[in-house]
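Page 42, continued from yesterday. The earlier attempt failed because a stray header line got pasted into the input along with the sequence. Redoing it now with the clean sequence only.
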Amino acid sequence: MSVEIYKRGAIWHYRGTVAGRRLRGTCGTENKKIAQRVAAEAETASWRRHLDGPSAHVTFAQAANAYRDAGKSERFLAAIEDHWKDTAIREVSAGAIRQSARKLYPNVKAATHNRQVIVPTQAIINFAAELEWCASIKVRRFKTATKTKTPATRAWIEAFGDQANADRLPHLAALAYFMFGTGARRGEACGLLWSDVDLFGKKATIHQSKVEDTRTAHMPQAVVVAIANIPTNRNPDEPVFGYASGESVGQVWANVCERACIEKLTPHSCRHGFATTMLQAGIDPKTVATRGGWKDVGTVMKHYAHAMDDPTVTDVLFDTPVTQGQQIYPVTSYKQKGKSI
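This time it went through. Structure tokens are written below.
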């Protein structure tokens, strides 16, 4: 039998591979004979679904169409659909997906393979699995080199803003301040409408691009001032910063960096700066993730933990009244029942 049983504590479980798909679950019993029967039935049911169920007939194209109809992101889907076409979805294995990434984009980095092929292909199949058309799938990502992201600092933002204002680009200066002050992504900031902004309340409604949700961001005073200095009639349906999309910011942004004689950071470095500056100020990662619109704390820690790499941070373990500027009290032994503790 390709499916085997094993114990986890007192309860039997089963695991194995059926038709190229991993199968695992609990038998829900301490009786070995009953557990063997449960495992055998699970294997038989899996074969039946493979041979006679929807996965025997559903094509990748049909799964992709269902994915689109559900309002999911269509980014990168065209090339993937052209590759698989009417291939039965059950024939799309993890290994085949990795091979398709190499074939579709032969001269790109691993990160591009992951982003443009593996992630969306896996998303389509797992969406079909939710519809009970096939089994879910997990595809191993290509290894990528972890790079330390260079964050924008307050000094960098101020230098950038001064140059942008000198170049009569107050909307670009405000864009930089907004991304640094709220943690907004470039596309999210460019999609901000005047109807999303409350200058008096110092609030902005950000339509988050990655989690398909909105969040209300507090705008520090410097951000409010920068936005208020944008010359516009503030039509509720017009973008605050005047850019049609994030892609249209790139060249003018680089030109301002060059004229300001500062490091050529990308617009996304403002978001990095938001997280890094908050962590360095002692704000806990959970709050940083919430206020910056990250999906979970793990993402913040994975990409921005270097913000707390200062080796002298351990001085806090032996912090003294001297370091705190407090009154010094004499050191005495604490005794309890005649013994020093």
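Notes: The first strand starts at residue 3 and ends at 8.
Reminder to self: strip header lines before submitting.
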